[in-house]
Design goal:
The protein has 188 residues and is mainly α. Helix content is 46%, strand content 0%. The protein has 3 domains: 1-72, no CATH class; 91-123; 128-153 and 160-179, no CATH class. The radius of gyration is 54 Å and the shape is rod-shaped.
Length: 188
């Protein structure tokens, strides 16, 4: 129920007036003149109280007073139902989603980088000479059969193991012969 505003009646001056008392009076809409009457003090004393840092510049709250008594005869519950958006996510879920997205993007960038390096890397094939040279460097030198010094069954006749250069020359001759044969087959 809202009460009508009453005029301030002169009171007895209390032994102690506190800042919280004046603060409450301001909240209740009591102005400086009415405070002087309420506490039975002089207006200049009220001005001195308002020099306090918490009261300086403060004004009484303005309350409009009804000329009648207004009574609430309806009993209503003021509980509000909190509705939760089903699409709403928690902060932890949002952080987890962001981390997952960043990791996926990082993986995609790494795959793209590998694909670009693969595309831009040289695609030259090894020549037969290079293949034989690698094979000669990777395999141990052939010395003969396990129990002897030569590769033949007879001791009086030794086989000569061709050198690497001789093998390369032989391969080149074979390739040239193949090219010549291919040229002959395509002539009309």
């Amino acid at each position: 129920m809202i009460e009508m505003r009453k005029t301030q009646e002169a009171g007895k001056t209390p032994a102690q007036i506190t800042v919280s008392m004046i603060d409450q009076d301001l909240k209740d809409g009591i102005n400086k003149t009415e405070m002087a009457v309420k506490y039975g003090i002089k207006p200049w004393e009220v001005d001195e109280m308002f020099k306090h840092p918490l009261l300086k510049g403060r004004r009484p709250s303005r309350k409009k007073v009804l000329s009648f008594s207004f009574v609430d005869d309806m009993t209503t519950s003021t509980t509000e139902e909190v509705t939760v958006d089903p699409n709403q996510v928690t902060l932890e879920q949002a952080i987890d989603d962001a981390i997952e997205s960043v990791e996926e993007a990082k993986d995609q960038m790494q795959q793209t980088q590998e694909a670009i390096v693969d595309m831009l890397s040289p695609t030259e094939f090894e020549t037969p000479e290079e293949t034989l040279l690698k094979a000669a460097q990777d395999t141990p030198e052939i010395t003969g059969i396990p129990n002897g010094d030569t590769m033949s069954d007879t001791d009086d006749e030794e086989l000569e193991i061709p050198s690497f250069e001789d093998t390369l020359d032989l391969v080149k001759e074979q390739q040239e012969e193949e090219l010549e044969m291919d040229d002959d087959t395509f002539e009309l």
